[in-house]
Amino acid sequence: xxxxxxxxxxxxxxxxxxxxxxxxxxxxxxxxxxxxxxxxxxxxxxxxxxxxxxxxxxxxxxxxxxxxxxxxxxxxxxxxxxxxxxxxxxxxxxxxxxxxxxxxxxxxxxxxxxxxxxxxxxxxxxxxxxxxxxxxxxxxxxxxxxxxxxxxxxxxxxxxxxxxxxxxxxxxxxxxxxxxxxxxxxxxxxxxxxxxxxxxxxxxxxxxxxxxxxxxxxxxxxxxxxxxxxxxxxxxxxxxxxxxxxxxxxxxxxxxxxxxxxxxxxxxxxxxxxxxxxxxxxxxxxxxxxxxxxxxxxxxxxxxxxxxxxxxxxxxxxxxxxxxxxxxxxxxxxxxxxxxxxxxxxxxxxxxxxxxxxxxxxxxxxxxxxxxxxxxxxxxxxxxxxxxxxxxxxxxxxxxxxxxxxxxxxxxxxxxxxxxxxxxxxxxxxxxxxxxxxxxxxxxxxxxxxxxxxxxxxxxxxxxxxxxxxxx
Length: 472
What we know:
This protein has 472 residues and is an all-alpha fold. The chain has helices at residues 5-30, 32-43, 48-55, 59-67, 69-87, 89-108, 113-141, 147-151, 153-175, 189-195, 198-208, 215-220, 224-235, 241-254, 272-286, 289-294, 296-302, 307-331, 337-359, 370-388, 391-401, 408-459; strands spanning 183-184, 187-188, 264-268. It folds into two domains: 1-255, MFS general substrate transporter like domains (Growth Hormone, Chain: A, Up-down Bundle), CATH 1.20.1250.20; 258-472, Up-down Bundle (Growth Hormone, Chain: A), CATH 1.20.1250. It contains 22 helices and three strands. The chain has a two-stranded antiparallel sheet.
């Protein structure tokens, strides 16, 4: 922030007791987009085997239907910023809510496999928009003294959305007698699982009408008086509103709009710092974390776990994900980003290696031997815990802090795109790899987790306690 921010902060802090509840409601409403991000990303976990049976498709075609949503995610994330700058943050949220709703209805009532794939892309576009607009809006509305904590609402909402989707799937599976294709409300159970997302999608849309537009956007389109009203609403009536508006205007004028050209240079096309950001994004995905959220029910069933129990394990894994995320939020500013990343990498290597060992055993009567089965189950939870308390959070913190100001927006966009592409690669390849050799698939993920350790030690610098200006 510019030096004039100091004048506004005392007023904002003095107003916190009276205004904090309202600001928390605003941030929580915006974070509903994050909830839907998590929910829509992982709800497909409960439908994978039913889709395979309904449309009689092989692993490769099935993987494309599951992974194709990520193409929509990449497009939505790439375009959301421009849409929000043209029509406003709230309108962008409302478009996202409509797309989530349409995707839920379409996915629940598909005519054919290609039809389902199309609705997955629509939902992916909504996810991409939500992944960008929620954090941006919260950062622009939150009082300076509470921006960090309110900003963490987005990540918390994502992991809660993942957990709730698995809980709902488990409940619906039980209601359908343990059969993903069992009849429920006139449809097959998996269709209801995908359709239930209509409820949070509609709620997100309704909440968007109850929160104000971003003051920053209003100032950008010349609506200064409305911007002052909202600033007073969220930061209190003791601040100098004219000075606050002038501060935001000056900050917007001084911003450098980074472009792709700014990232070019160095020996290998991009500047080294850009490659480090890409590396962080790729390692975050190549450890196979999204296998745990997209395919865990299928994975457990493939080694003999009862379908109902497999859905329960998917839910408990999601709870562990929440616990790990909370741990990261508590310690990321205390311990630092690099130590958390290294601790997480070591823990992930142990968890993944144990899973690879357990899956190397032959099935007995369609199941893993008891010792290997329990090892695989515990190791899967260990892996998710260590990912969540480290790479799940710190990569986004690093990407938000590590780039010089003149590169930040464009570099963050490239790194985020690399993350979606890596996510797609893992998601699209897992079913075929698992059919070929499940144990060796986990060996691959273990190797990437191990390689992340020297990568962090050699290339990634600590950003804790440094201002964004110190990054160059």
